[in-house]
Design a protein that fits this description.
Shape: globular
CATH architecture of the largest domain: 3-Layer(aba) Sandwich
Family: Belongs to the bacterial solute-binding protein 3 family.
Low-confidence stretches: 1-31
Keywords: Signal
Pfam families: SBP_bac_3
Number of domains: 2
Protein name: Amino acid ABC transporter substrate-binding protein (PAAT family)
InterPro entries: SBP_3_CS, Solute-binding_3/MltF_N
Largest sheet: 8 strands, mixed
Strand content: 15-25%
Distance between the termini: 23 Å
Helix content: 25-40%
Number of strands: 15
Number of helices: 9
Radius of gyration: 18 Å
């Protein structure tokens, strides 16, 4: 089993409304250019609205009445640089990856541990990558599944419309789709599926005496923050913040807080 420390950060239709938290209070004035005029058009004017899909810990999860996590820490920094507050809403993953949530003005950005793929690029525009991760294979303790080779004929829980979903289909294996990671884990515990495949970084939070990651499935998977296709102005601001947080040490602080160790050097 590969240690979580081997993951390499690559930083170089109704929605349930929940307030996102940030480590820094953001001003409530709208984003402006040098002349004082609004520079970025946001769906709520003086709020950066973020679509996400918890639970996907440590990237997004619910703590009390708030959605928190690494992605929310990053988008809070984007909001701070824009000079606005942040609000986070829960949205179906398929609505985010298809661009529907952005096209219908549900939110300004999507931050949900979303992999950058060619298919998704047709619907949404991505920031520079901020995290790289392989897939993991999670099973119940005592399972006869120990590697990819043991998956033939098994029911594999996957999160709908994710890289793990595609990986299982491409391998010709039997996938059972779920709307979110929490439902995948529940299905594994109750015996509805024999194994779960999702991103290694998030499966690690579920390891226990009952559940174990038995294999790493290498991919070229990298995460990006998404904006509506053609929204170049906002995308530039997102990329500028990602570059800043890496250069000023904020990324190291966020990563260490959420994973318990500093990111590897690029």
């Amino acid at each position: 089993m590969t240690s979580l420390k081997h993951l390499v950060p690559a930083l170089a239709v109704g929605a349930l409304m929940l307030t996102g938290c940030s480590s820094t209070e953001s001003p409530t004035t709208p984003a402006t250019d040098a002349s004082g005029a609004p520079a970025i058009a946001l769906v709520k004017g003086d709020v950066l609205t973020v679509c996400t899909n918890p639970p996907f810990e440590p990237f997004e999860f619910i703590e009390g009445d708030k959605i928190v996590g690494l992605d929310m820490d990053l988008t809070a920094e984007i909001a701070k640089d824009l000079g606005v507050e942040q609000q986070v809403i829960t949205t179906g993953f398929d609505a985010m990856e298809s661009g529907a949530a952005l096209n219908t003005s549900q939110c300004d950005v999507v931050a949900t541990g979303m992999s950058i793929t060619e298919g998704r690029k047709a619907n949404i525009d991505f920031s520079e990558p901020y995290f790289a991760a392989d897939l993991g294979l999670l099973v119940k303790a005592g399972s006869d599944i120990a590697s990819e080779a043991d998956l033939e004929g098994k029911k594999i829980g996957v999160q709908k419309a994710t890289v793990g979903d595609t990986w299982v289909a491409d391998k010709g294996l039997t996938g059972v789709q779920f709307d979110d990671l929490g439902l995948q884990i529940q299905a594994l515990k109750t015996g509805q599926v024999d194994a779960v495949i999702n991103d290694y970084a998030v499966l690690g939070t579920y390891e226990s005496d009952e559940l174990a990651i038995v294999a790493t499935l290498p991919t070229d998977d990298v995460y990006g923050i998404a904006v509506k296709k053609g929204n170049t102005a906002l995308l530039e601001k997102v990329n500028a913040t990602l570059a800043r947080v890496k250069s000023d040490g904020t990324w190291t602080t966020i990563h260490t807080d959420r994973f318990g160790f500093a990111p590897a050097e690029d």
